[in-house]
Fold:
Amino acid sequence: METSTFQKIKRRAGKLFDSRLQSGRVLEVRHWNPTTLVEIDLHLPLADIAQWHDIPYIKFKVDDLTFRDYTPSGWDAETCTCTIYVDAAHQGPGSKWAQQLKKDDVVSYLKIGSTNHRPVATSAVVALGDESSMGHLLALQKMVLPNTRFSGGLIIGNEDHRKLFHEYFWSPLEPVARKDVFGHHSLMEWVLEQQYSLENTVFYLVGNNTMVTQLRKLLKHQGYPSAQIKAHGFWS
Ligand SMILES: Cc1cc2nc3c(=O)[nH]c(=O)nc-3n(C[C@H](O)[C@H](O)[C@H](O)COP(=O)(O)OP(=O)(O)OC[C@H]3O[C@@H](n4cnc5c(N)ncnc54)[C@H](O)[C@@H]3O)c2cc1C
Structure:
């Protein structure tokens, strides 16, 4: 009895969400080698992110009543297309969804939200993240003009992926090897080697929550005020 009531509520909730979904189509899927990083080109004809001021995210339906956020690394307003980068090295509905997607599949999304991350006027914008924030950091790179103001470090655990990052993108972001589980020690070591000035540097921290929280603490300990640290945790 209880199960059937629960199933009914679930079905109703599913219908409610489904009626609010927008859809798009997969144009291409590229699996990096090894295949734990998935690059997905999407056509989203109903999306209106041409005027974005902050870096957006798209809340995709990845399973029944299950939604996950992924970040377009840019947006082509003429063709309504974008690319997302999914870190799919772990077990999870989002990871599974990305691994199974193929050309011409239909994708559904609930909304396009904003992360409140936009480049501020300063001489050095430093981005720090992990594999899950690749799309976000590439989007930030595109928004920072002139691009000489932009630099940063991106934790990428797999050595082949680090090489591919250089091969696939022109980016001042430096792939950094992960020596600790969440990557914050590796990134902090890397930051200290760069000798950024205390006055003009604004940091953007994105990726797993432990990395973001610990990096923020470490940067504050280094003397950077809160206003110079923009942090957004993605997962824990
Ligand atoms: C605003 C925003 C934008 C995001 N953009 C992106 C993006 O562009 N690309 C992207 O890959 N992710 C992105 N994420 C993160 C993504 O939505 C989460 O990682 C999501 O939880 C993964 O879902 P899942 O169903 O695969 O795993 P979950 O069911 O959430 O988690 C299952 C298990 O896997 C672990 N886990 C979750 N994510 C990871 C990971 N990346 N690496 C290792 N272990 C993990 C969890 O700790 C948990 O133990 C974004 C998150 C936010 C909030």
In short: The mean pLDDT is 94. The first helix runs from residue 2 to 18. The chain has two domains: 16-114, 124-234. The chain has six helices and eleven strands.
